[in-house]
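Hey, I'm writing a tutorial for new members on how sequence and structure tokens pair up, and I'd like a real worked example in the thread rather than a made-up one. If someone can provide the structure for the chain below, I'll link this post from the tutorial.
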Amino acid sequence: MTSPDASPPSTAIDRGIYVMPQFVTFEVSDMAAARRWYVNGLGFVELAVLPGPDGDPVLVHLRRFRYQDVLLVPGRDPEEKASGVRVSFAAGDEDLDARAASASGESGGVVEGPTSTPWNTRDLHFQDADGHLVVFTQPDLNVDMDSEFAQRVRDSVQTTD
């Protein structure tokens, strides 16, 4: 029996409240610009906005698909760029070329791809204005699976009974 969580993400965004097994928190220098970039460019939706004492947001909770959550918090110095962290999200059957065009039309970040990888995926790379790296990835259905490679992967999987 296959777990419902094992299926690829659907195009419907789950706005339900649940315990998130994993999420990423990005410190940003401009909350309004970051919100526009992730919502208008990358296709996230706002689930919640927590205002601070002055009314400005101190946390913005964004989501694409189930278990694909990003929290934006203020605090990054505009002169200091994030480095070293890259988060990848399964893109399901989303049209990555259309998403790249959408994000390219939105100011606030850099878009690269989509490109094919040696491990048979198509990856679309984004870098927001603060330097955070986000990748949308999906199987590359335009390549023939290398049968020798596929067999090596199958052989390397350890099963326990």
